[in-house]
Amino acid sequence: MSTAPIELQSERVIVQAPLSFAGSTKRILRLTEQNRAMALKAIVGPWWKGTLRVLLDGLLVLTVGGFMLLAWVFIAAWYVLWGIYLVPYRLIRRSDRNRKRDALQHREMLDAAIAAQALANKHVGE
Q: pTM for the whole thing?
């Protein structure tokens, strides 16, 4: 029996800029994650519920594809107009996001060490 691995908060941090192709794609694809309200559940029930869910899943794919196409067109236009002027700013912002992720990872490691120590102390006291 296997359980799904626990996703840490630092793993959810997207380091890429929102106005980059990779960053916008990762943010848009979050709409399709399993733990989101829009995610489809397992198909249980009459055949028409399964068909409806498949159609809704197809609609979700088309919607996400449309969002990505619009985002990429906007980002390409943005790069052509303003991209070169914003390179220093984007480098600073990226380092800020990296520091945020590193701080979250450090906090998670400390929390795990504190939990392990508490568990060890509990077993010693028994």
A: 0.55
